[in-house]
Design a protein that fits this description.
Blueprint: H1 3-38, H2 40-49, H3 52-67, H4 76-95, H5 97-115, H6 122-152, H7 157-176
Helix pairs in contact: 1-2, 2-3, 3-6, 4-5, 4-7, 5-6, 5-7, 6-7
Length: 197
C-alpha cells in the first residue's frame, strides 16, 4: 500500500471519527437541553414512551404542536379578575374544601382557555402546558387527579389542600407569564407542601 493511500485512509478515518464525535456531541447537547427545559417531565415522557428516543420525540412534537397555537398573555383586567377569583377559592376552603377544589379547577381551566390553550383531552392539554410551564405540570396532574377523585368520592381535606396548592402553582405561572414562553429558569418550582394561603 502506498504512502498516499495510507494518508487518505487516515484522513478518511479522522473525518469519520470527527463526524461521529460531532453527532454524539450534538445529540447529547439536545438531550441535555430537553432535560433542562422539562425536568421531571422529561423523565416522565421517556418512561411512558419506553425509550429515550421515543420520549424525546414526544417532547419535540409537543413543542411543534404548541408553536402553532395562538397562546397570548392575559389582559390586566383578566389578571385582576382571576386574582379576585383565586382569593374566593382560598376563602371557600375553610367552609367547603371540595367546593374550593372544584372552583380552583374551574379558574385554572378558564385561564387556560383565555390564554388560548385547547381544552379537549386532559393529558394532551397537560402536554401542551408542559412546553411553557414544565416546572408545574406535575403539580397540575396531581391537582387534576385529586379533583377527579374527589368528584367520585370525597378525599381527605389534607389531600384537597395539597391539590389547591398545586393548582395555585400553575395559576401563578399562567397569570405571570407575559409572552407565553417557558419561565422555569426565572422561578423555582412551587412545592405542594404549603398551605393554600
Amino acid at each position: 500500500m502506498s504512502a498516499t493511500a495510507i494518508v487518505i485512509i487516515v484522513i478518511l478515518a479522522a473525518v469519520i471519527v470527527l463526524i461521529a464525535g460531532t453527532a454524539f456531541f450534538l445529540q447529547n447537547r439536545r438531550r441535555r437541553d430537553l432535560h433542562r427545559r422539562y425536568g421531571h417531565e422529561y423523565d416522565r415522557a421517556v418512561q411512558q414512551a419506553g425509550s429515550v428516543r421515543a420520549g424525546e420525540a414526544d417532547l419535540r412534537e409537543r413543542v411543534e404542536a404548541r408553536e402553532v397555537l395562538p397562546i397570548h398573555p392575559l389582559t390586566t383586567d383578566q389578571v385582576d379578575r382571576y386574582r379576585d377569583e383565586w382569593e374566593q377559592v382560598q376563602s371557600e376552603f375553610v367552609d367547603t374544601p371540595s367546593g374550593s377544589l372544584r372552583h380552583a379547577d374551574a379558574v385554572v381551566t378558564a385561564i387556560m382557555v383565555d390564554r388560548g390553550y385547547p381544552m379537549s383531552e386532559f393529558e394532551q392539554q397537560a402536554k401542551l402546558i408542559s412546553v411553557d410551564h414544565a416546572s408545574v405540570v406535575e403539580n397540575y396532574r396531581l391537582a387534576h387527579e385529586t379533583f377527579l377523585e374527589n368528584e367520585r368520592d370525597r378525599v381527605p381535606t389534607d389531600q384537597v389542600r395539597d391539590a389547591i396548592v398545586a393548582y395555585r402553582s400553575l395559576f401563578e405561572e399562567l397569570i405571570a407569564v407575559d409572552d407565553g414562553q417557558d419561565s422555569k429558569d426565572e422561578r423555582s418550582q412551587t412545592r405542594v407542601s404549603r398551605s393554600p394561603r
